[in-house]
Amino acid sequence: MSACPDIDPAAPLEYVINSASGSHDAHRKGEIIERALQAAGRRGTLHFSQPAELAQVAQQAAASACAERTAVVAVGGDGTLNTVAQAAHAAGCAMGVVPQGTFNYFARTHSIPGDPAEAARGLLGWTPQPVRVAAINERVFLVNASVGLYPDLLEDREAYKARFGRSRWVALWSAAATLLRAQRQLRLHIEQGSSVQDVSTLTLFVGNNRLQLEQLGVQPLVHPLSDAAQGLEDDCITAVMLRPIGMLSMLRLMLHGAMGTLGEAQSVRRFEFKHMVVRPTLAHGRRGVKVAFDGEVTRMRAPLDFRVLERPLYLLMPQAGRSDRIAE
Description:
Low-confidence stretches: 223-233, 246-261, 321-328
Helix content: 25-40%
Distance between the termini: 9 Å
Shape: elongated
Mean pLDDT: 81
Structural class: alpha+beta
Strand order of the largest sheet: 7-6-17-14-9-10
Number of helices: 9
Order of helices and strands: EHEHEHEHHEEEEHHEEEHEHEEEEEE
Number of strands: 18
Largest sheet: 6 strands, antiparallel
């Protein structure tokens, strides 16, 4: 395990703020940060960025954080947190989070307050602690990564939010509409060491967040913090596959999901792993596959390499936040 980054409290924290929601929202985010810094007598540099430049801004902020022995702080939703985590993990600096998303699974898992003002104040007194991260084709993900139906769910959710507003009810409504018209099947060749299998599925969902899995009713089979003496050897993530089913079975599946008992559904299969290579059967002439990670959708070239990364991300978090932390 890499050494925990040293934090100099006199150095200015590097804040990366996603200003995609508009100038008024970005201004409000900046005010929350500045009030917290002023109250604590600390300094910070605020980097406002549009989505197209977010990765570059995050990389520059992470490099500055390393040079100044400080942390880079992500201010935004899951996509912003993912982009900043990618930069922080690559640079080896500590990372802080001021959540602004809908579900905030990553922040909640690590006991980071959902209220932005409270989180902005709290991280000024927290210390870096190692948390597990995973990757798909070297792209870091904090909560989940998937192919098949789930990326379609995310794209439909964004379309519904643009039309009806951002809320959990809109997200759930759009998910139900997507599930009810789900028909496309994936044919996947899956390799896990010497184990090989060919499957047909509607989606392959890989979860790296115990809170989200528990809310779905897909309890991880291996506890990531089972025992400090076991270290990283038992540090696995959870794969969930949904076999092709009819309309009536899909309605029953939605009921299981709503009740948090998805893992009990006969159409759902799950397993734990540390490294898995997935080779989808693609249409002639296609080399890429639609992939979702932490709420973002893109195309990646096959095969897809899922793995738990050996090097953790060092997150500014309360001492009591233990879920998904790496045992040292």
